[in-house]
Structure formats: structure tokens, C-alpha cells
User: Fold these one by one.
Assistant:
Number 1:
Amino acid sequence: MKNNNFTISYKINPTDFPQASTSLELKKHNNNWVLKGVYGMYSENEVNRIISEDEVQAVITKLEHSKLPVLPSEIVGCDGAFQEIKLARGVGHIIYRWWDDELEGYKVLDKLVDTLLEWGRIDYGKCKM
């Protein structure tokens, strides 16, 4: 399958509370799509989940058919978080990095972040806060 070398990496780094960072990576491992990372501030909140082929393929298809602006609009801020998504296939990759809120024209990335966070969501009643 052409997407075996496809990877999505996501990071969010709050400026005022860096310990609360989230880092997730989705890639193929032993013929399964695996989402790994740390959700929130404690290593006990590790994510290691298999995601269905159909769900991942739907995301890849949306990304392949998206049209994103080459230059983002200018945004500044001081309290909030940097978000970053790296999309890679084979030896090629692209990185999108933005400040806190959704960028105009990048709705597909906002939806991708929502999907990754939903896939990586932890039952906070069972994790350390």
C-alpha cells in the first residue's frame, strides 16, 4: 500500500506551562497504524493505540485533496500554545507550526488535530493529573 511510509506527528507546547505539552505520532508498525505519545504532563499518560486502516485512510485522503495556503496570515500572541504538525511520506515531509488558534485557510489541519486528540484521548479519571 502506498501509505506504509506515511507519518503524522503532532505537538502542542503551552508557553506558560510547558510540562502540559502533548506529543503524538501516528505511523505504520507491523501492519497496524499505531498512535503513540504522551497526552498531557505526565509520562503515565502514555498513548499506545491501534487505529483502524479505514480511519487513517480517510484522514490521508482528506489531506491529499486539501489545498492549503503557502503563507499563513500573521498572528501574534503571548499566552497560549504553539501547535505543530509534521506530515511525512517516504523521504519528503512538511511542517506546519502556528500559534494557538485555528489559522484562516487551514481548517483541514484543525480537524486533523481534533481527530488525533480524540484518538489519543485518555480517560482522565484513570490517569495522573
Number 2:
Amino acid sequence: MNLQLVGDLVTAALVVRVFGSDVLALLRRAAAAGVRVGISELHQGHTEGKR
């Protein structure tokens, strides 16, 4: 491995260490929003079918 590759790997490891938890939190929020949208669509379709 050359010195530049080692530097890139260290930088990548630091970025993951610093921003990893933030990225996971954003992914969790996006997943929760997707679930809420899906549930609201299910409820909307369910109430429209009763009309």
C-alpha cells in the first residue's frame, strides 16, 4: 500500500467515525417517514373503499 491509499483509508475511517451515527439517524428517520406514508395510504384507501 502506498502512502496516499493509507491516508485515504484513515480519512474514510474518521469520516465514518464522526458522521456514522448521524447517517444512521437520518436513515432511521427516512425509514420511519416511509412507514408513516405507507400506513396513511393504507388508511386512506381503506376509508375510500367504505364510501
Number 3:
Amino acid sequence: MVPISFALNVVHGFFGIIYYGATTVFGIAIAPRLAKLSSEAIRELMKGFLPSVLSFIESSGIVTIVFGAGQFLHYMIGYYKAGGMPEVESVLFSTGWGISILLGGIIGLFGFLVGLSVRKDINKLASVYRNILPDDAQVNEVKTNLMKVSLIGTTLLTISVILMLVGVTFLPLPEH
């Protein structure tokens, strides 16, 4: 039988790599180039490519968060069983591992919420392009916002990944 912590770690890590990679490619390579594309090129992207890509990114992000939260709770339950809430608080706020994992999780969650804003901007851009003659000012506003929000989300997720990697790679797991 596979230990639950191993299964949670593998699924969280696998989808985390996919999520982070896809988000980074979108935030650094795709979103900034949307501003330079013609209206016709963006209209074609809106028909299938971008909605599919964003659904993929969103889905992998949700799996990453759910299994990461499961992993976090699994460890916290172990610490709770060992010493109650004082033990949990001590691990979270007094150890490098706890602080790194807690901050990484919080910042990662903010990064995911920023990603939902990217999804909203893409949907807004798609609805603008469904019009016969899209308003250039409205299109430019959405493109600019999309670029900013994508870079913010990518930055938050990069910080989150660094904190998580520091926590699980270099800092010892606190003992009960």
C-alpha cells in the first residue's frame, strides 16, 4: 500500500510542475504577444486555442491546490495528534519549514486567484471580438490588463514555487 503522504506529494508535484510551467509560458510568452497581434489573429485565437489553454491551466491549478492542501492537512493532523494546537502553531510559525510552506501556500493561492482574473480578461476579450467591429480602445484596455495580470500571477507563482522548494528540499521536516 502506498502511504497517503507519498501519493499526495506525487500528485501535487506532478500537477504543480504542469501548472507552473503552463502559467509561466502563458504569462511570459503568450500574454505579452497578444498586444502585438492583429485583430484578426486574436479573433482566431479566441475561437479555440486560448479558451482550451486556460481551461487546462485552471484545471491543473485546481488539482495542484487540492492535493497541496491535502498534503498540508495530512502533516498538520500529524502534528496535532502529537501535541495539539500548540504543536501545530509551533511548527507553522517557529520553524523554517512551516513558515516557508505556509507562505508558499498563501502566495500560491493568491497567484491562482490572479489567474482567475486572467480568465476573466480572456473571456472579456473573446466577447469583444464577437462584435462585428470591436472598439479598439476597449480591446487595448483588455490586452494591457491581461499582460499586467499575467505577469503578476506568474511572479506570485514563482515566489510560491521557490518557497515550497526551499521548504521541502533544504529545510528539515519538523519532528513530532
